[in-house]
Amino acid sequence: MTTLEYLSTIDSLAVQPFPEVTYVDASGEGGPEHHVRVLQVSRDFWDDDDGQAWVEAEAELRASLDGLAARLTDRWGSAFVVDLGPYLSASCEGESVPEPLDYLSQQAVSMQVWPLPDNDRWLGLALGQADKELPLILFAAVGRAPALDLNAGGRS
Q1: Which of 9, 24, 102, 155 could potentially form a cystine with 97 if both were Cys, beta carbons 3.0 to 4.6 Å apart?
Q2: What is the per-residue pLDDT across 76-89, written as a single tens digit (0 to 9) for each?
Q3: Where are the domains of the chain?
Q4: DSSP per-residue letters across the chain
């Protein structure tokens, strides 16, 4: 996909009603308070003995993430970074973690977040990998503002 196609997907997610029930399909997952879309996926790394394929894939997906983030920053101002580690720790300790933070924390260590204007949603971009042999994935997520405890300044 191109940056313009990513932006089209993000624009659709930003206004799309949240589903009443949780679902998972080939494009991502969602539920009553969120949407997650897979924007780009690398190859897997089962046979990447020297790590070179991972380095190349990470550079490619990072470039996609950086280009998309620049376009979103032009639209909505600077993003802030959310550390997903505390959400993963809370989930592992049996605490309830709102989606999509629970899902994303199992895939990525952080995400860039933009509060969406004129509604109570935010958009996040994250680059993640569930395990070292599995593909790298560029995610776009939309969630309700309370999931991140956004205050009026747009910070968590």
Answers
A1: 102
A2: 999 999 999 999 99
A3: 3-147
A4: --HHHHHHHHHHHHHSPPPSS-EEETTEEEETTEEEEEEEE----TT-TTSHHHHHHHHHHHHHHHHHHHHHHHHH---EEEE-HHHHHHHHTT----TTHHHHHTT-SEEEEEEPTTSSEEEEEEEE-SSTTSPPEEEEEEEEGGGGT--TTS--
